[in-house]
Amino acid sequence: MSHTAEIPLAPGSESPLELKPLKAADPASVYLRRAKRLEVLAKDSPLADYLELCRRLVAVQAKLAAKEDFGLPPAWDKSEGEPLTDLGPSADSYWQSLLQQLLSELLPQVDESVARVLRLLMQQAPEQLSAWGQALRQGNLSTVPARFSLFLWAAMGLYWSHWAPAVIQRMDQRRVEQQSLCPVCGSHPVASVIVDEPRAGLRYLHCSLCESEWHYIRAHCTCCGHDKEMNLWSLDDYQANVRIESCEACHGYTKMMFLEKAPLMDVAADDLATLMLDSQLNEKGYGATTVNPLLLAHETEDSE
Ligand SMILES: [Zn+2]
Ligand SMILES: [Zn+2]
């Protein structure tokens, strides 16, 4: 490994040279694993129908991620900030062509009420799709019709996750600082994962758009950076594989998934499956600082 990390390391770290501040994903295998996990979680879930729709959607993502032509590499910004934030019209035309393919693949697999939404989305003008896509990427979720958000994000995720690994290879990782938003594309994380490689208990935030992961020191708020008065919550015992870290300074919270204890977990799928934890934290006055791509339809439902 040629690059060392300038981001703060966890206290007591032994071998800082091995820490990767930024990890690229293999999108096809991320989607495959997510689809499998959704299938398992759908059994006996009160959200079974919704999880099954998500599973079919993610399975189509897996197929397209492995096969599709993604065109020429986007003209990404090499100067400063997150390189895949502002990509311009050519990226729009590529992700929108992925959207059309994704919708045609999904159409025969869904019931009539969802099929109506898909057909309506297929007929939207490119300018409209570009505007909605940009609004979603900038976090203005409520300005996009909730029924379309899930599918728009899925198509953009395919495009951004395809190019993120190539961009990461060319980024100077020494300039990657600990930050709340994805250093590659500027999107919110879904949740954080705790891994034991290259050393025990490292935390990475997982991007909701490009599936990259970036290191973030534990026991520091992933939203405001505060490192005192952090609380840990879980549904059952202290050994729980999914825990929430909440912050008394900004009243935000982030989920942590302990992948070493449950290697089949997937950030987006397991976040959906543990919404009980969210409602308990919401009742106590805390708000999520994360975005789940599979939950967009639900999150914006009220604002339509
Ligand atoms: Zn990203
Ligand atoms: Zn905070």
Would you write up a description of this structure?
The protein is an alpha+beta fold. The chain has 2 domains: 22-174, FdhE-like fold (Alpha-Beta Complex), CATH 3.90.1670; 176-288, FdhE-like fold, CATH 3.90.1670.10. 40% of the residues lie in helices and 12% in strands. Strands 1, 2, 3, 4, 5, 6, 7 and 8 form an 8-stranded mixed β-sheet that branches. A hairpin with a 6-residue loop joins strand 2 (189-195) and strand 3. Helix 1 runs antiparallel to helix 2 and helix 3 (89-106) runs antiparallel to helix 4. The radius of gyration is 19 Å and the shape is globular. The N and C termini lie far apart (49 Å). Mean pLDDT is 88; it is low at 1-14 and 299-304. Bound molecules: zinc ion (ZN) (2 copies). One zinc ion binds at residues 221, 223-224, 226, 247, 249-250, 252.
Proportion of beta-strand residues: 5-15%
| Rg (CA only) | 19 Å
The CATH architecture of the largest domain can be given as: Alpha-Beta Complex
Distance between the termini: 49 Å
GO molecular function: ferric iron binding
GO biological process, one term: protein maturation
Main location: cytoplasm
Subcellular location: Cytoplasm
